[in-house]
Amino acid sequence: MLELVDLTHRYGTYHAIDRINLTVKQGEVVCVVGPSGCGKSTLLRSIAGLIKPTGGAVLLDGRPVESTPDNLAVVFQDYSRSLYPWLSALANVGLPLRRRGMSRKARDEAAMAALTEVGLGAAAGKFPWEMSGGMQQRVSIARALAYRPSLLLMDEPFGSVDAQTREELEDLVLRVCAHHGMTILLITHDVDESVYVGDRVVVLSKAPGHVVGDLTVDLPGPRDQIRTRELDAFVKLRADVGRMVRGMSARRFDNGMTHEVETR
Amino acid sequence: MGATGLLVILEVAGRTGVIDTGFLPLVSTVLARAAELAVDGEFLTHGLASMEAWFWALVVTIAVAVPAGLLLGVVRPVESATRPLIEFLRPIPSVALIPLAILLFQNPMHMRMSVAVYAATWPVLINTIYGVRDVDPLAKETLRSFGFGPGTVVMRVVLPSAAPFIATGVRLAASVAIILVVTAEVVAGGISGVGVFINTAGSGNRVDLMIAATAWVGLFGIAVNALLVAAEKRVFRWHHNRLAGVS
Ligand SMILES: Nc1ncnc2c1ncn2[C@@H]1O[C@H](COP(=O)(O)OP(=O)(O)OP(=O)(O)O)[C@@H](O)[C@H]1O
Ligand SMILES: [Mg+2]
């Protein structure tokens, strides 16, 4: 279980996130949406132990996160910078598996399987700089999935791929995570995606980001790209989240309305 | 082209008597001597001795300067603590250290190596420090986020990332080491070494042999440089392609 208690971070004097409270249960998929610059990446980096928040705490299974938690994988927003240009796609995906004490052969096999799942089986020998942005993004997703973390943090992981691939990747992530009981925190700016992928959607205000809405997505699983999206409940939820996100940018949103949404 | 033209002019000047060939031998004479030296067993022995000193000096330099550069680049406090020492040592001309090296090392081979190592260390050390500083923080964070410790981050991200810069430093060091080995040989003398050969030729008033031997040193330097450039292009294809904007 992941708990954020009054999580606050300032970069110098700049207030990035403000008293974020959030509890994510084991195996839950939580999507975070919010306007650009509201501190979503800051939130993710705090959870990953990459920055030390200036206030509040991150608790994992009740214990405060001091450094990087074990069994964590991150898909960074800046995926291309997080791939190693001197390693092939296969070696990039296989590198974290060294921590799993796997043999070279086992690592290569697991990496190959993950790359195949994201549709890059044929490109396993390519280097990141020989790949398009969308391909690089899929390599970094494959790397995170192959690691089989118990907590998976994804920062706008499907931003550079086409709509069709995006749907396939959404389903892949959901499938792999359900199968391995992973907990996911996924940051996105796509309202539609947040409702489709999430068990819950958390809406952040603009900077300094704080939680203005927390909706439970009560849709039947497993999700299906066509059928789920045509459900009345889906359409309604999407409208709710959309209104909250838009309300934020139009500054029409206030705490009173947040409560109204939270109690539904 | 320019070099060839200059050689032709020198040759003509020598033949027409504009330049006294007793003072500066004909280009063709020097070329003939150089060709002879290439198959001259005695000269080759001298050459091998120099190359041996040069090679081991470079090996020692890499073994010392790369780990030191990593340490200084990664651990900031060490860098700031040692900066005054480095700024004091770096401007000392290595040639000025030759007399000291003669006193410290009985073995002429070690003496030459020590001077060469001193001079060659700086480009490798400085390039390693800057290469290490230049590593993308996100590349390091990625590995950290997967739970790897600082040792692994250094070996698997910092070192490979900095490797192209280190290689450039090594290439510069290779040239510097050639210069210093030959200089030490010329200054301190000894039994073998190209510098010793040049000295002997000089005292025998064989300017043609002196220049021919010197030309071989220069050619060796050019060859080493070209070889290392080619190796860098090959090994660090990822670096050059990325810089070229291929993606
Ligand atoms: N290292 C840093 N130093 C100073 N300010 C920073 C730093 N990182 C982020 N910020 C600032 O903090 C704010 C929040 O940044 P963050 O990257 O968390 O936003 P975000 O919600 O992820 O934005 P986006 O949707 O555009 O990715 C921004 O205004 C940004 O300029
Ligand atoms: Mg961001």
TrEMBL record, chain A:
Q: Name one Pfam family in it.
A: ABC_tran
Q: Which domain of life is it from?
A: Bacteria
One example of the protein's molecular function in GO is: ATP hydrolysis activity
Please give the organism: Acrocarpospora phusangensis
Entry-linked InterPro entries: AAA+_ATPase, ABC_transporter-like_ATP-bd, ABC_transporter-like_CS, ABC_transporter_ATP-bind, P-loop_NTPase
Q: Which PROSITE patterns match?
A: ABC_TRANSPORTER_1, ABC_TRANSPORTER_2
The entry's keywords: ATP-binding, Nucleotide-binding, Transport
Q: Which SMART domains match?
A: AAA
Q: Where is the ABC transporter domain?
A: 2-231
The major lineage groups are: Bacteria, Bacillati, Actinomycetota, Actinomycetes, Streptosporangiales
User: What is the name of the protein in this document?
Assistant: ABC transporter
